[in-house]
């Protein structure tokens, strides 16, 4: 019945709707397709990802009708992709594939067919829907056929934003361009079809063209590799409603609640599913216990404890929000020094979430606590065992070098270290999990000797001047009778947090840096000029890399800024009314626009009305063309006559 319907009603003719010029190879095109197949959520933020159900390779066997037969069989058979006898071709089936690694490795006579399920973020509103994808290597054409689409009580266009209507679409590669075609068959309303085509043209085609031109694309899935994506999404949405919404409202800290609350919700989701997986594999009856070392605001501890996992958090400094948690959340204010006195033999997991100087010690603490103790670390600020970590490898970044070091520590401690990437609002998203050992309990003494030697060597080489480290005294050894401390140079963070946001930098230094950067941005290459509504010409300048900005300043000034968090970048961002810093470049804040700030930045500027005209307009006083806005439209004061007193800030 379905086959007859297809023959009579489905047209396999496609019409060209857009074409974009590219300087890309066929391999670049296929790599770009892999990103869209494996990671659709990077374009469509309403998706959490995708899941492959089938993956087969068909050889056309000199049959021009193979492609058409495949299409009809795929769309008429709801449960599977057709076998060789159904489409007159040879078939190579690949079971258990979670993602497409490289489409360009297949032969020119191959047709790759797969079924992909698209997973929506909002599972309470939308259901999973499927696509049949057919990639014809000889034609360099890929076609996406919608298999099913269900959305509950909502307009589809409001939710998923991509395939709002049931249309098939196709991309075709040529040596100088990529074409977008859509099927002539229409199963949906014209308005929905129009929205779909607009999204395909403006979003998807544009991204594919850009990716096709890039080299060394990371085409495979990089985040949440150790978990089931669909389970993660369901659990995250549940915890988000259960904890996130309320804590964003009542957040008493000065930090951004949108970032810190939902980051901890995501980390809690990850750990809960990781532990659920471990209970299944190891047949554990009880929920795992934990200690969060350097727990900060304590929200992660609160969520894990509320979900039934016994444990506690410890940090050197108490936070205001600690008082808002219930008695089930145990948080201790104490200093942690790696030693025989800081072992946790009665706990299953040690957690290091942005634990800074404790990060390299956590695998050591876990290894020495008990043979069954596991760990989770999310590295951030780079620390060695006894000092700041320094990268001696010029070909990789400081962050990647530090990640490799943290992995090495775990492996040296005897763990099988697994690397994953979290989905959190942070640039430091890579985590490490040590849940299995690489040695038997009988080898503990041998491995402990290797641990001790490794730590001793790192304490020697990692310290800037090596003074204070006695190479003859192994103070880190757990069997050392003279001292229980494992490194005499370890420095825990200070209880009173230093303010390092350039406040201590002198005003004259700030003014000097601002003037130098402003002059360079205003007069750099590719600077632009705009005609204002009142007829004036206003020089908008261009944009320059932060590295170039640093080269404009002398060593003394750079030395002052280096001791501050973020250094030069922090100083420039503190002057956001003058500069815009993004993607490693600096440009002038463009007040010719109605809203010169990003939506996120504008949302953080609460009660802007009460600060109207309380700060002098920098452009009015310093830009050679003055302020691009008239006095009536500028929220800053044009001259002292307009200046108002700032409202009193009460504690």
Report on the architecture of this protein.
With 651 residues, the chain is α+β, with helices and mostly antiparallel strands. Helix content is 32%, strand content 19%. The chain folds into 3 domains: 2-213, 2-Layer Sandwich (Alpha-D-Glucose-1,6-Bisphosphate, Chain A, domain 4), CATH 3.30.530; 288-461, Rossmann fold (3-Layer(aba) Sandwich); 507-642, no CATH class. Strands 1-8-7-6-5-4-2-3 form an 8-stranded antiparallel β-sheet, sandwiched between helices. The longest helix is centred in the middle third of the chain and has 26 residues, at 257-282.
Instruction: Please give the domain count.
Output: 3
Q: Kindly report the spatial arrangement of strands forming the biggest sheet.
A: 1-8-7-6-5-4-2-3
> How many DSSP H or I helices?
18
Could you name the CATH homologous superfamily of the largest domain?
Answer: START domain
